[in-house]
Each structure stands twice: as structure tokens, then as C-alpha cells.
Amino acid sequence: MNFEPSEEQAAAIDAWNRYLERDIRPRVEPYRDQMIPKALARELLAATGPYGVGAGWVAEEDGGLGLDFVTSGLLYEELARVSPDVAGLAFVNEGAALKLARVGTPAQKERYLARLLAGELIGCSAISEPGAGSDVRGMRARAVRDGDVYRLSGEKSWISNASIADLVVAVVRTEENEFSMFLLDRDEHRFETREIDKLGLNGWSLGQIFLDGVVVPASSMLGPPGEGLRESMKGFERSRCFISLLGLGIARAALDDSIAYARERTQFGKPIAGHQLVQDLIAEMATLLEASRLMVFRSLALMDKGGKHNMKAAMAKSFATEAVVRIASSAVQVHGAAGIAREYGIERHLRNARMLTIPDGTTQINRLIIGRELLGTAAFA
Ligand SMILES: Cc1cc2nc3c(=O)[nH]c(=O)nc-3n(C[C@H](O)[C@H](O)[C@H](O)COP(=O)(O)OP(=O)(O)OC[C@H]3O[C@@H](n4cnc5c(N)ncnc54)[C@H](O)[C@@H]3O)c2cc1C
User: Fold this and answer.
1) CA distances to 162, 201, 298, 328, 350 from 353, in Å
2) pLDDT score recorded for residue 227
3) What is the pLDDT of residue 308?
4) Alpha-carbon Rg of the chain, whole angstroms?
5) Which region holds residue 298: left if phi is over 0, alpha if psi is between -120 and 50, else beta?
6) Which of 145, 171, 193, 249 has the smallest CB count inside 10 Å?
7) Is any ligand 1 atom within 6 A of the Cβ of residue 93?
8) Which atom of ligand 1 is nearest to the CA of 360?
């Protein structure tokens, strides 16, 4: 069991952190509470890709960097400390690229993969719908074959990157009990999107995709017919860990801010850092963060070894994303009234953290996955 990054990983993180502080932080600072415009999102993906963020998971023979998940996770955690919005943008783009690399035809890969990896195109993955959240099989969006084309209808909702996406990997119903993936190209297939006004992670797009009237050639199907949901489910273990990494980054920023403030703020004639109950808050924040890190990186290490580790990923996700809400809430408490003022930026950690207990399986769904594994009985379909 090894809890320390290797020398190579430590050197990569060091160079990455210097780059983040010098080049990325100043560019994203103005967009902490407003959506990063598409042109800048592309520039950021182009800038982070060569470091392994946004292009890391795809194998080298497909044009990616072929990074292991632990190394990728270390890089994402640092990025999320600086900007959870950019980390989200990149990990969703990378997820779409990985699906394309895994099951795309040579023609689909040739056309889109290198451009996705280079940040020239932005990708997203659309499963959820207004009526199908935790119960993904309830989705109603469908594709009906009509000669050489499919006609798509329906609506996708709560889709990360939706309103800036050039390419959508959409899962829709193709038969009564069959779901398939399609590759939708905004320029060619003319789907409409709408951004959703939300609580936190406001630099990162989250929106609806309207599919009515979308006609795609049959060659736009991604992967075999009827395999869309199964293929997407394969990615859930990974995405549960990477959404948790956003939480680790937010938690670290909240803890760092709280320690700095506690040392500087004076009440009752001494820095509040010297008051025992403030130390209790800080100690609990740091302990929750440490436990979350161990769980998330253990899951990533297991994924690198291969095999299915659904329960570990569900434990890591449900624990780490609830923990960061508590950590960010304590950060507000340490800052007193300054914690709730927008101008200090501490309340933003809490709003950002609060977003993470919902995607990639809510806390409740992840607990049901843990229960199913331990008890051998599924409490949900
Ligand atoms: C930041 C963010 C990013 C997202 N990105 C994407 C994306 O890129 N692509 C995509 O397809 N989707 C995305 N989603 C959507 C996300 O996957 C869904 O929001 C999630 O699956 C939950 O669905 P829902 O919101 O409809 O809630 P519901 O499923 O309606 O759940 C509502 C409540 O009921 C509980 N609940 C539901 N069923 C059960 C049960 N059987 N037992 C106990 N409790 C239950 C839930 O835990 C929750 O508390 C994103 C969501 C967020 C917030």
C-alpha cells in the first residue's frame, strides 16, 4: 500500500500547480459566478490537454496521453482547487472523448476524436431527462429509424457542457427496452440548447438539449445498437470518482481559506485560530478531507488495477461529496459574517459543494448501490 505520489507524479503536480497559478487562475477568476464563454472554454481545454487534463484517459494510440486514473486524479484535484468549473468542463469533455475512443467507428474517430482532445470541439454526455433522473430507464427521448436516417425526439436535461457543446453523446430509446448512443454534431444536426440558472458551479455550463426535429444519418449511432445504456453505465464508476475530485479541490480551497483567515482575524485579543472551538472546526474539516481523499484515491487505484469496484466508488462518492458540503459550511462558520458575503468568495465554496451530491448517482442512490452489494438485494430497479 503506497500513500505517497511517485517522484514522477510529484514533479508533474508541481509543474501543473505552477502553470495553474500563473496561467489558468487569472483567466478564470472573472468567471467564478458566470458561465465561462465558449471561446475561453476551448482555450482552457487546449491549454490543459497537454498536461493530461481533458486528454489523459484516452489511450496513446488514439491520440490521448493514456494516463492512469490516479495520476489523472491528482491533476484534477489541483485544477478543482483553482477552478472546479474548469475541472468539470474538462472531465465531461474527456468522458465524451473516451466513449468515442472506445466504441466509435474509425470514421467517427477520424472526424471528431483529435479535435475533442485538442479542445477544438467541446463534448458532453446526455442521459438525464426531466422525467428520468435516478431512474435512467425511464427516459423517453427516442430515435426512430426512417430509411438511412434516425429521427430523434425528446428532451435531455441537467446536461453538463450542454450549451457550449459541439458534440453530444446522447443515449435515447431505440426500441421498447433498448437504448442506443448517438453522436450529435451541433453544426449538422441543429439541436437547440438552453442554459439553466443554478445555485453553484456557475462558470460551468449545465443545460437542456431539445431534440425535436433532429435527423441524423444512421452512421451517427455510436457503438452497437441497444448497448447505449450499458456503455454509459460502464463510465459511472469513473465519473463518481471524478465528480468527487471536484469536491476534494473545493474542500482544499475552503480549508486553506479558513486556516489563513483564522490566523489573521482577531477577537477577544487574539487570533481566532487560538480559540479551541475554531480549532475544532478546522480539525474536523481537515479530517473529513483526509478521509475523502483516501477513499477517492483508493477507488482510482482499484480502477487502475482493473475489475469492477462499484461499491468502493459509491462509498467514495457518497462520503466525499457529503463531506465537502460539511467542510464548506464550516468554512462559512470560521469566517463569521464575512463567510456569507459574496465579496469574500467563501459562500461560493458552499454553493459549489452543494451541487455535487446530485450528479452521477445521488447520495441516496449510491447508498443503495452499497446496500445492494452488501446485502445481495436491490432496493431499487
Ligand atoms: C451538477 C450536475 C451535473 C450533471 N451533469 C449531467 C450530465 O452531464 N449528463 C446527464 O445525463 N445528467 C447530468 N446530471 C443529472 C443527474 O444525473 C441527475 O440530476 C441525477 O441522476 C438525479 O436525478 P434527478 O435530479 O432527476 O433527481 P431524482 O431522481 O428525481 O431524485 C430526487 C430525490 O429522490 C431521491 N431518490 C430517487 N430515487 C430514489 C430511490 N429509489 N430511493 C431513495 N431515494 C431516491 C434522490 O436521491 C433525490 O434525493 C447532472 C446533475 C447535476 C446536479
Assistant:
1) 20, 8, 21, 7, 5
2) 96
3) 87
4) 21
5) alpha
6) 145
7) no
8) 17
